[in-house]
Amino acid sequence: MPANWPFWVLFHLFVFAMLALDLGVFHRRPRVLAFREAIAWSLMWIALAAVFATLVYHFGHAMTGSGRPNSVLALEFVTGYVVEEALSVDNLFVFLLLFRYFNLPAEFGHKVLFWGILGALMTRAAFIFSGVALINRFHWLTYGFGAFLVYAGVKLFAQKGEEQADPERNPVVRFFRQHVPLVSDYGEGRFFVRFDGKRYATLLALVVVAVEATDVVFATDSIPAILAISRDPFIVYTSNVFAILGLRSLFFALAGLIEMFHFLGYGLSVILVFVGVKMLLSRLWEIPTAWALLVVAVVLALAVGLSLAFPEKPDI
């Protein structure tokens, strides 16, 4: 058992308490999350991440069990959080296309994202701990991850977002359709219903499966990206979790605006290539985390600025 196990326990208690408060108190009944409320929740999650970064700055040594300076650990947390949050924005566009594909009623969107993200926390944890363990034991895997990120960045630059969002191409969704009895409605917000003594999954359950399966694909990019920033399991995991937890409110805050940022995909591809190169050069030249954070911030600002300065012309 690691020496910093109390901080792992405290962090998970905080996460479960926030999730319980979210679903059990504020969103007990399905409803559409208003724009102003979504902005408020998004700012709250950003503020909580900032508070956590401050705690890492003051108590990072005890929280991580690492002998590295607290300031370095805090900077790695902030950089990892920004990278993951940026990649999450691209995820939101695909989630939006998924919801449109399935004609998901707006009042069920928060519930789908809640359960989808809860599953994502478990899959991301498995990816993170296995990735950290493998890199620490087999350093040459760093180059494999770096090359993969460069490839992913180039591929993202070339492909269209719609190609990522076709659920019928996902083997998990196809398997679910073929092997699970399914009804063609949303069951009033339930995942399963009974007819004539037989249990059926609703379209709501299918949408959650599609979101989960899509997130696994996203994780193959985002986890190696954050491992290029830090290899401390506590820093990597907590920054990833904070980014995921803020994803739901960010979705509703940006749902009506996200298509405006048509240059964002190009910016994210540049970020993936950059962190891939950072991994590939790790033995020759370790790019400082502060520089990495600056590059990510500048690329994102340019992508947003170009999107606003040169809006995409609507199809006629």
Summarize the structure.
This protein is mainly α.
Instruction: Note the run of SSEs as H and E.
Output: HHHHHHHEEHHHHH
What sort of overall outline do the alpha carbons produce when their principal axes are compared? globular
Number of DSSP-assigned strands: 2
Spatial gap, N to C terminus: 61 Å
What is the topology?
Blueprint: H1 5-26, H2 35-64, H3 70-101, H4 109-137, H5 141-158, H6 161-164, H7 171-179, E1 192-195, E2 198-201, H8 203-227, H9 233-245, H10 247-254, H11 264-280, H12 289-309
Antiparallel strand pairs: 1-2
Helix pairs in contact: 2-3, 2-9, 2-10, 3-8, 3-9, 3-10, 3-11, 3-12, 4-8, 4-9, 4-10, 5-11, 7-8, 11-12
Describe the structure.
- With 316 residues, the protein is mostly helical.
- It has a domain at 5-90 and 115-160 and 212-246 and 256-309.
- It has twelve helices and two strands.
- The protein is globular, with a radius of gyration of 20 Å.
- The N and C termini lie far apart (61 Å).
